[in-house]
Amino acid sequence: MNIMNMISRRRWFLFCLAVIVIITITAALFKVKNPAKSQFSLQVIQLDGGWGYEILADNKAYISQKYIPAIEGNHFFDNKNDARKVGRLVLDKLQCKLSPTISKEDLVKLKILKNELK
Prior knowledge:
Elements: H1 3-30, E1 40-47, E2 50-57, E3 60-65, H2 80-95, H3 104-109
Antiparallel strand pairs: 1-2, 2-3
């Protein structure tokens, strides 16, 4: 085997290796991620003394919220509709891949927060 033939094979090997590396990097950078999303759902629950909600992920409890979040103390939601409104906001945040945290401002906007609980 002569030197020119060895150089030619080496160049061919390096060329193929470079193409593989470029394809791999390009695929990783431009890969459209479509992971299997958890199917979140909302379930309003009646409790002794009020209402709460659960967020289910693939039909398993993911968040169980018995009390109104973001306020001091343990206060149940007064009615099913209030629990549903806050639970729906949490569900929307999760589906948008945002933190499901609820603030006092969220409760005011949803007309959940009473003046005496601010």
